[in-house]
Design a protein that fits this description.
This protein is of the alpha+beta class. It has twelve helices and 19 strands. The protein has three domains: 5-130 and 312-342, ATPase, nucleotide binding domain (Nucleotidyltransferase, domain 5), CATH 3.30.420; 134-176 and 249-309, Nucleotidyltransferase, domain 5, CATH 3.30.420.40; 179-247, Alpha-Beta Complex (Actin, Chain A, domain 4). It has helices spanning 46-51, 73-88, 107-119, 130-137, 178-193, 199-209, 240-263, 267-276, 290-298, 311-321, 323-328, 335-342, and strands spanning 5-10, 14-19, 23-29, 32-35, 41-44, 59-62, 65-66, 69-70, 96-101, 124-129, 148-153, 158-164, 167-174, 195-196, 220-227, 233-239, 278-281, 302-304, 330-331.
């Protein structure tokens, strides 16, 4: 018998969890600080993120998820175990855990992720495709024979899907998203300005003056870094136009994934999409001008969902409350166990 039912948005940059009857109960960065010699975790989540770029040689900062896929199985298991125990506290029964994955992961990758979740303490587990969960979390009706497009811009991947009648008709997943945009700023400053900055500084630049379209009024900010030439610390000014051109290739990559999906979409569904528009979800959609960029290049009205960073987690919660969605739209190691769990 299973206990609490939990939905987890297992993202490259963050882990967001939904508990049935409680709503969003956890939102933490997907970062672990480990002892460099023993590999034992020292800090996780927000505490680990604050240490990024500031740890001594005896510690390593690790992101155990890359491009929406598990890259370090042991640390992912430990991280999930820690968060599951934090959510369930002293509960005796093991929870049923539903986790989101990019739409293009292979069957082998799905089985691997499920095994990690089970090893982390789940009584049973299933996987739900990220764009479908994002659509549910954004309040898009998925059961009608009517096409809708969701573009979920996360930390490691951007998933685009055409959804109709509760299923994904056409989808694409590209490895360009919030994290690659941040890394593009780091590369630009190193290449063009001979300045070295850390990930957190580049993230601040992106969130403060970054944009998916050229701003009508240029803005600027002062940031701190290190001269590659002299090795000395320095303060420097960077403007929004510089940042736009620094990240443009990543933005184009994100956009191409959506354009490819639209090109493969049947005419009748495209007719629906012209009426329903595009919906952006995920934390990456909060970049200034992102909706305008999609509208300019697709000619389709584009909106950003409310609290887009939580859409996937809310969507998993909706699936946990709806046995039909759980049966028809998820992947589990044992479908018999999944049917039993969905009837709890």
């Amino acid at each position: 018998m299973l206990g609490m039912r939990i939905g987890i948005d297992l993202g490259t940059d963050s882990i967001i969890a939904y508990a049935e009857g409680k709503g969003i109960v956890l939102s933490e960065p997907s970062v672990v600080v480990c002892d460099a010699f023993t590999g034992k975790p020292v800090a996780m989540g927000g505490a680990a993120l604050k240490m990024t770029g500031r740890v001594p040689g005896s510690l390593n900062v690790v992101r155990p998820l890359k491009d929406g896929i598990v890259s370090d199985f042991r640390l992912t298991e430990l991280m999930l175990r820690y968060y599951i125990q934090k959510i369930c506290k002293s509960a005796v029964l093991r929870p049923f855990v539903a986790v989101c994955v990019p739409s293009t992961v292979t069957r082998f990758e799905k089985k691997t992720i499920l095994n990690v979740i089970m090893a982390a303490g789940a009584g049973n587990a299933c996987l739900i495709e990220e764009p479908l969960a994002a659509a549910l979390g954004a309040g898009i009706g998925t059961k009608k024979p009517r096409g809708s497009v969701v573009v979920d811009i996360g930390g490691g991947t951007t998933d685009t899907a055409v959804i109709t009648m509760g299923s994904i008709a056409v989808s694409s997943s590209v490895k360009a998203a919030g994290g690659s945009i941040t890394n593009a700023i780091i590369r630009y400053l190193s290449r063009e300005r001979d300045i070295e900055v850390g990930y957190l500084t580049a993230e601040e630049i992106k969130c403060t003056i970054g944009s998916a379209v050229l701003r009508e009024e240029e803005t600027a900010m002062v940031a701190n870094g290190k001269s590659i030439v002299s090795g000395m610390p320095l303060s420097f000014e960077i403007n929004s136009t510089e940042v736009y051109y620094a990240i443009k290739d990543e933005l184009d990559h994100i956009l191409q994934g959506t354009l490819q999906v639209l090109e493969r979409t049947p005419p009748e569904l495209m007719s629906d999409i012209m009426d329903t528009g595009l919906t952006l979800t995920g934390g990456g959609s909060l970049l200034y001008g992102m909706a305008e960029m999609f509208k300019r290049h697709t000619g389709i009205d584009t909106d950003i969902a409310g609290e887009p960073q939580y859409c996937v987690a809310r969507g998993i919660g909706a699936a946990l409350r709806n046995a039909d969605i759980l049966r028809t739209s998820s992947f589990a190691l044992s479908q018999d166990e999944l049917l039993a769990a969905s009837n709890i």
